[in-house]
């Protein structure tokens, strides 16, 4: 086993450590190396001049190297801090990019929502306008409905009034029909009576003609006028005409007395008598409308056509 001096061993370790140091060595390692070099230099046995020169060189080396390593270490720390800050900054940038992307999406969404909002506002304006128009239409409809209700009430009143008038006219028409039926029956009866009277008047006229002819044939024989002063034809129940209110004015009994001396003119007798037409009244046209207009008492207010009226006037010798 070899014995090695401790000083030599310390020096060897120091030199070996210095040989391993480089630019990547830490500042604390450099400081430890400087301290060991100082202690090693102090323990080296040499003259004072060399020892002093060696220590001065070590001091100068330490003064030159340690600040550099200190600066490098500071820069390294600063670089690490900057890297850390850069990493944080990059993370923030990524987060900011994410935020920007979200912001761009939100901007697009805002644009879309803004467009939708404008459309909603336009629709709202249209809705308000339509609502106002609908309210006006509703008000007009209410007013028109009130007018229609009033018109309906008036029409109902008028309808009830017209129905009442229709009932009255219906009753009046029914009454008029009944009256017309009775009048038709009366007219038929009066026509029959008139025909009977016409036949009787023709028979009477024939008798008068025979009597006049008889008087003319016997004038030459000087027949006393007193014996034929008058010929009386007694009236019979069958020859008694009746008074007709609607057709003719005939007396209840016909007393036919023929005076022979005042007889009828001969068949060839001509007369210059004419009817006076100066004061003749124009006949009013009868109404043919139905129902017949009536007054409050149910009497016709216009002329009514009831059929032909035939009058038969028989001359009376007493006049």
Going across the biggest sheet, name each strand in turn.
1-2
Helix count?
3
Q: How far do the termini sit from each other?
A: 218 Å
Described by strand count, sense and barrel closure, the largest sheet is:
2 strands, antiparallel
Give a count of the beta strands, DSSP E runs of length 2 or more: 2
Name the quaternary structure.
single chain
Q: Spans with pLDDT under 50 lasting ≥5 residues?
A: 220-263
What would the principal axes of the Cα set say about the shape? Answer: rod-shaped
Which radius of gyration do the C-alpha atoms yield? 81 Å
Characterize this entry briefly:
The protein is mainly alpha-helical and 319 residues long. It contains three helices and two strands; from the N terminus they run αααββ.
How would you describe this protein?
This protein has a two-stranded antiparallel sheet with strand order 1-2. With 319 residues, it is mostly helical. Among the domains are: 6-99; 171-258, no CATH class. 63% of the residues lie in helices and 2% in strands. The termini are far apart. Helix 1 packs antiparallel against helix 2 and helix 2 packs antiparallel against helix 3.
Structure characteristics:
319 residues; mainly alpha; two-stranded antiparallel sheet; 2 strands; 2% strand; coiled coil
Tell me the layout of helices and strands.
Blueprint: H1 6-20, H2 27-43, H3 48-217, E1 231-233, E2 256-258
Antiparallel strand pairs: 1-2
Helix pairs in contact: 1-2, 2-3
């Amino acid at each position: 086993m070899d014995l090695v001096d401790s000083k030599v061993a310390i020096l060897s370790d120091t030199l070996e450590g210095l040989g391993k140091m480089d630019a990547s060595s830490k500042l604390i390692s450099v400081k430890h190396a400087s301290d060991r070099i100082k202690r090693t230099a102090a323990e080296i046995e040499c003259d004072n001049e060399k020892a002093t020169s060696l220590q001065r060189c070590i001091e100068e080396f330490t003064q030159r190297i340690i600040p550099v390593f200190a600066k490098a270490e500071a820069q390294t720390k600063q670089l690490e801090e900057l890297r850390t800050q850069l990493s944080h900054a990059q993370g923030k940038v990524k987060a900011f990019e994410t935020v920007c992307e979200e912001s761009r999406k939100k901007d697009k969404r805002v644009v879309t929502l803004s467009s939708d909002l404008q459309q909603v506002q336009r629709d709202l304006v249209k809705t308000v306008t339509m609502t106002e128009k609908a309210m006006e239409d509703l008000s007009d409809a209410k007013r028109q409905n009130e007018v229609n209700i009033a018109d309906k009430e008036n029409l109902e009143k008028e309808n009830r009034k017209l129905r009442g008038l229709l009932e009255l006219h219906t009753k009046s028409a029914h009454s008029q029909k009944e009256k017309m039926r009775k009048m038709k029956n009366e007219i038929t009866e009066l026509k029959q009576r008139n025909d009977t009277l016409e036949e009787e008047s023709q028979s009477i006229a024939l008798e008068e003609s025979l009597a006049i002819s008889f008087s003319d044939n016997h004038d030459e024989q000087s027949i006393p006028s007193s014996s034929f002063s008058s010929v009386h034809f007694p009236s019979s129940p069958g020859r008694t005409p009746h008074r007709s209110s609607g057709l003719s004015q005939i007396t209840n009994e016909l007393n036919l007395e023929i005076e022979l001396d005042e007889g009828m003119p001969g068949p060839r007798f001509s007369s210059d008598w004419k009817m006076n037409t100066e004061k003749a009244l124009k006949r009013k046209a009868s109404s043919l409308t139905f129902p017949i207009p009536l007054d409050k008492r149910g009497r016709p207010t216009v002329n009514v056509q009831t059929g032909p009226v035939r009058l038969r006037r028989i001359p009376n010798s007493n006049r």
